[in-house]
Amino acid sequence: MDPCPFVRLSVGNVALKIPVASKPARSVVHPSSSPCFCKIKLKNFPLQTAVVPYIPSESHFSNGQVQTLAASFHLSKLDLEKLAGKPFFSKKLCLKIAIYTGRRGTTCGVNSGRLLGRVSVPLDLTGTELKSTVFYNGWIAVGKEEAGKRSSAQFHLNVKAEPDPRFVFQFEGEPECSPQVFQIQGNIRQPVFTCKFSFRNTGDRNQRSRSLQSEPSSSRGWLSSFGSERERPGKERKGWSITVHDLSGSPVATASMVTPFVASPGSDRVSRSNPGSWLILRPGDGTWKPWGRLEAWRERGSTDGLGYRFELIPDTNGGMGAAAIVLAESTLAASRGGKFMIDLGGGAAVNGRTTPMNAASPVCSPRSSGDFGYGLWPYCMYRGFGFVMSAAVQGEGKCSKPTLEVSVQHVNCTEDAAAFVALAAAVDLSMDACRLFSQKLRKELCQTQDLLG
Question: Residue ranges under compositional bias (Low complexity) (predicted)?
């Protein structure tokens, strides 16, 4: 089955040149000491903000310089159709960028930055799902002209669109209800996986799924190595597990809660200092092997949401020798949900540091089912960076049927896709695991009465 066409529109290599006046003046901007930033807007998409570095006016911007990402927009086929609009009644599509000097943020409800100028880049996205297109690459004058002279401020940017095909999967129901998972391609829905939710609890072996009853004993060692099954006093949610099976019934991935979600002393919430965690495992060499680890907690303060951190576990002689690599860390709004995303675009900073995709690429799956036909994951280690996956998560109390997108570069076989499906299920279940303990969970998530909150 073919993947769905997607386009990645990226804005990169932004920079600003402003000659420093020889005589101080109140109206002159001194960017060497004043920070700059820009706001990037594409029709119908959320506004994105990025820092704009200043470079001396005598410097040149090398075309061979490493691409630094300022913003990116992920466009599905439906998005492309909407953006195309009706040519007789809609204006030509443009990417709009406003450049500011001063610090980002607001003071007393007023933006603290001062507008320097605006840039508009015309876009024609026709055919971009098939070939790359560069819409602009170079310098452009910004700011107001004075006394008939051209603006001395120069803004550099690179705007391009690239094909970014993805596999799209959707859960038929909520993960705790053991749903089927469909692959979506246009109007075609094809079942590819089934999920089995269960309790992995030392006190109740009978509720474990059939696939986990036959798991190799060595996998228990992995679970104890990465988490804790010890009994803890107080409020906790523990032992959840979801196993992904292919259509033949064979287990191809699992997400297991290895550290209980425990309420902090004197509160009803899981704290960042003591998060719960999941281990995402894949089959290999007659056992389960760790692939990734997801930590989750409930954020405090004005942003009440689900905080999370996902790290990849390199497969080196059993996976214990190399340090895990953090690929995603962010927050999802508890009330309205959001998108869990792994996107290492253009060497963009992840948690304050640049993370190359080749350093994070796992080895090929031990099973070569190759059902998806895009054997690029083990060979893309030096192909650069980009989108990896995203999963839509609903807010608390809402019916959640997660939809996830996975780049074809990272799906070599069924087990690759199943690992991302298990991760999406773990993210969705973490929204429930991190609910305030004063709130009740649905019956499918409760093994004993003390888990009701």
Answer: 209-227
